[in-house]
Amino acid sequence: MLNLWNPEHVSLAIGLITACLLGLIHGITPDEHTWPITFSYSIGSYSSKGGMLAGFFFSLGFTLQRAIGSELSYFALTGFLMHVFVENIVYIIVGLVMACSGWYILMRGHSIHLIPWVDKWVPHLPHDRNVDAPVPLRLAFVHGVIAGWGTGAFATILYTVIAPTMPSPWLGFVPGVLFGMGTLLMQVAIGATFGWWLQRRQISSEGKAFIGRYVSGNTLLYGGSLFVVAGSLALIAPSLAEWSINTGVHVHNLDAINLGLVLVVAVVGGVGGVSMWRAMQIVTKGRHVTREYTGKHVG
């Protein structure tokens, strides 16, 4: 019998199904390791196709990490990930990468070329190499790999309950892959929704390019800064990382108000929401949009 809340004594088949279902739930519920980044890159693409690709490549990197983590846990080598300070360090690293990406999107208007070998095989949108395309999809992939090292209820179940039950080291990575694929399916859908929403606005293509760049850049820059601050404060005051208020909802990621949920709301709802409102105001009032954003004028 499946018990997604507290699986115990799982068989091979039940364990694999549980890993996949947990990934689906992880992908659709507000999570600080997925939503802020998927939102930022999807809005930046300002299309449903671009949003899908943003969610796909972020989750692809995330899946790669979870496969590695799952294999390590089979050999009981993931104990270090269970320490609270590791989660806080991941917050800081993710935040720094987000902030750097946001800064380049806002100030440079082009993608970041960090690892050429990734750039060779990650496809680009038709407009991905010009100034109207702020979303560096290869960086979304890198974000996924880094964010995947964060822990929580889902990772704990995957690493301590499911992966160790695999019958062979050759299968140790499989629960991580299935968990990642479940997350990928949901993040692709969410990314497409964010991109589709902006695509459907009755705004010129120049206006959409400006909004995409403005919102994604600000969300990554200031949202990443919030991640760095939160991770640093939690390292200084460990009680902050352990703080939570029970909501009574029997669903992972929704069962408590904690630092992770606060970050999701602050970054997506706060920084992203305010940036979207501000960008829409600029475009709808026909104000001048500088070349650093779109290379053209709006209005």
Task: Provide key terms for this protein.
mainly alpha; disordered C terminus; 2% strand; 11 helices; 2 strands; two-stranded antiparallel ribbon; Urease accessory protein UreH-like transmembrane domain-containing protein; transmembrane helix; transmembrane; 299 residues
Based on Cα principal axes, name the global outline: globular
How helix-rich are the residues, as a percent range? 55-70%
Count of individual beta strands: 2
Span of the ends, CA to CA: 60 Å
Order of H and E elements: HHHHHHHHHHEEH
Question: Could you list the spans in which at least 5 consecutive residues all have pLDDT below 50?
Answer: 109-119, 121-134, 288-299
**Quaternary structure annotation:** single chain
Q: Please outline the major beta sheet.
A: 2 strands, antiparallel
Going by helix content, strand content and strand pairing, the class is: mainly alpha
User: What is the typical, i.e. mean, pLDDT?
Assistant: 81
Number of helices: 11
Number of domains in the coordinates? Answer: 1
Strand content: under 5%
Protein name: Urease accessory protein UreH-like transmembrane domain-containing protein
Organism: Alicyclobacillus sacchari
Keywords: Membrane, Transmembrane, Transmembrane helix
